[in-house]
Amino acid sequence: MRCIVPLYLMLIVLCLLIFAGCTSAPDTHPANLSPAREQTADQIFWEQMTQNAGWSARYFQGSAALPDGSIVLTGGVDKNGIPLNDVWRSTDDGATWKQMTERAEWPARGYHTSVALSDGSIILLGGADSNGTALNDVWRSTDDGATWMQVTPRATWPARDEQSTVVLPDGSIVLIGGLDNNYSLLNDVWRSADDGATWTQMTTHAGWPVRSFPGVVAPADGSIVVMGGLGGNGVPMNDVWRSTDDGATWEQVNTSAGWSARAFQKSIALPDGSIVLLGGADGIGTALNDVWRSTDDGAIWKPVNTSAGWPARIGFGSVVLPDSSIVIMGGGANSGEENGGNDSEIFYNDVWRITSFDCTPGTIHTCSGTQVPAG
């Protein structure tokens, strides 16, 4: 059995694995990768919805945006390394939260995934329990997370945590990658067309290298895009891959995307077809708060923020709302220099929101809170 690893140990192990594998690892920081910074980068403004959301500070929780625009947060790991199974909901973009249940029917866990379906139900999958054992159960809620019904105690995909899960436009659920109970990284892909009750293996080994914490999005065109994550030897990645057949076959879009190789990041697909990547930890275990955007399925990336207003973090929740705004919540980091050079853990229960990427001259929107001069 594995154990739930404290944040500081996770980042230390990440660094050690990177150094151990550096002789065979590719150069993830070529000097010519980063695109020229646009003048509008860092004018894009994030609004803090709340400094203290009411739910306890945590990381590696599940998060989902429902069709009615509400946000649901599920479980996670608290500052003491204890997995949780409480559920919280916000109906005002993350400003205030209501506890839907103190103890859900599913066992407490972190490193799991949760997604929302078009009928408003929530599906929760996998993760690691309080014993550190990876799971492959599936649960469903039809009342905003207040009560849960077990869809299956053991899905056909191997038990895992640190995976990613997306919902395709046809309503099917796709589960990708992760880490199994043998500590083996995975690159298999599974799909369910019946709310997680039964699963079809789309591929045993996708074309992209094995990894945990992959960034995965499902744009409106029905494709699936995989980016970054923690690969073999603990080396973070910054490649991009795309599938147009529900994950059965994959084409490499980019061998090195321009943003620094990373793990524990979040990725979002916006209704306009663009993809946004946020935060994570880089190749030396430093938490990040940069934001990048691609409008061509991950081939070319441009910086939105080189340093967003929210503190750098990993393992946070992120959702896109029906109005195309993005909300991030919780997560953790090492304080490092913030505490006089003493490395200690910081956990968050704050919530941040961005409503637009529009910094066109003459507009107000989210550009530093002031009008951008015309011309």
The helix-and-strand class reads: mainly beta
Architecture, CATH level 2? 6 Propeller
Radius of gyration: 19 Å
Report the major sheet.
5 strands, antiparallel
Q: What would you call the shape?
A: globular
Give the low-pLDDT segments: 15-39, 337-341, 361-375
Total number of domains: 1
**How many runs of DSSP E, i.e. beta strands?**
26
In short:
This protein has one domain (7-21, 37-354): 6 Propeller (Neuraminidase), CATH 2.120.10.80. Residues 15-39, 337-341 and 361-375 have low confidence and may be disordered.
Structural overview:
- The chain has one helix spanning 7-20, and strands at 47-50, 58-59, 62-65, 71-78, 83-90, 98-101, 113-116, 122-128, 134-141, 149-152, 160-161, 164-167, 173-180, 185-192, 200-203, 215-217, 224-230, 236-243, 251-254, 266-269, 275-281, 287-294, 302-305, 317-320, 326-334, 345-354.
- With 375 residues, it is mainly beta.
- The strands form six sheets. Strands 2, 3, 4, 5 and 6 form a five-stranded antiparallel sheet that branches.
- Strand 24 (317-320) and strand 25 form a beta hairpin.
- The protein is globular.
- Mean pLDDT is 87; it is low at 15-39, 337-341 and 361-375.
